[in-house]
Amino acid sequence: MLERTASDATPRDDAVRLLARREYSRAELVERLAAKGHADDSIAECLDDLAEQGLQSDARFAESFLRSRIFRGQGPVKIRLELERRGLCREEVQAAFAASEQAGEADWAALACAALARRFTGPGDTPRERARRERFLASRGFDFDQVRHALAHAWDSTSD
C-alpha cells in the first residue's frame, strides 16, 4: 500500500483538511493553499468544486466568524474590518450582519454594556476614568452611540 506524503497532497486534500477544523473564507484558503505550493489554476478549480458541493461557503464563514466574535464581546466596527481583511466583500459582510440581527444575535448596545460592566465596576468618577472606559469600548469595536449607551446603562440593575 502506497502512503501519501505531504508533498503528494492535492489542493483538495489540503483544503478539506483545513475545513475539517473550522470554516475558512475562500481568500484564506487561496492564501494557505498557495503557501503549500499548489498552482493558482488548480486552487481556483478546487475551491469552485468545494463551493459547489457546499463544503466551503463565504456566507457560512461570515456567520460563524460573526457569532464567535459576538461571543467574545467584540463590536461591529472591529468585526466588519476583520471580515473584510479576511477577503469578504462588503455585500457578504452586510448579509451576515443582517442575518445575525434578524436572528436576534446582535444587540450591540447590550453587548457593549455587558463588556463594560464585566471590565469595570462603575462609570468612573473623573473624566480620565470615563475616557479610559470609552477607549476600552472603542478598542473592542463599538461605535460612538454604543459607547455612550453603555456608559449610561452598563451598571443599571436591569441591564442583564
TrEMBL record:
<protein>
    <recommendedName>
        <fullName>Regulatory protein RecX</fullName>
    </recommendedName>
</protein>
<dbReference type="Pfam" id="PF21982">
    <property type="entry name" value="RecX_HTH1"/>
</dbReference>
<dbReference type="InterPro" id="IPR053925">
    <property type="entry name" value="RecX_HTH_3rd"/>
</dbReference>
<feature type="domain" description="RecX first three-helical">
    <location>
        <begin position="12"/>
        <end position="50"/>
    </location>
</feature>
<dbReference type="InterPro" id="IPR003783">
    <property type="entry name" value="Regulatory_RecX"/>
</dbReference>
<keyword id="KW-0963">Cytoplasm</keyword>
<dbReference type="GO" id="GO:0005737">
    <property type="term" value="C:cytoplasm"/>
</dbReference>
<dbReference type="GO" id="GO:0006282">
    <property type="term" value="P:regulation of DNA repair"/>
</dbReference>
<dbReference type="Pfam" id="PF21981">
    <property type="entry name" value="RecX_HTH3"/>
</dbReference>
<comment type="function">
    <text>Modulates RecA activity.</text>
</comment>
<dbReference type="Pfam" id="PF02631">
    <property type="entry name" value="RecX_HTH2"/>
</dbReference>
<comment type="similarity">
    <text>Belongs to the RecX family.</text>
</comment>
<dbReference type="InterPro" id="IPR053926">
    <property type="entry name" value="RecX_HTH_1st"/>
</dbReference>
<feature type="domain" description="RecX second three-helical">
    <location>
        <begin position="57"/>
        <end position="96"/>
    </location>
</feature>
<dbReference type="InterPro" id="IPR053924">
    <property type="entry name" value="RecX_HTH_2nd"/>
</dbReference>
<dbReference type="InterPro" id="IPR036388">
    <property type="entry name" value="WH-like_DNA-bd_sf"/>
</dbReference>
<feature type="domain" description="RecX third three-helical">
    <location>
        <begin position="109"/>
        <end position="151"/>
    </location>
</feature>
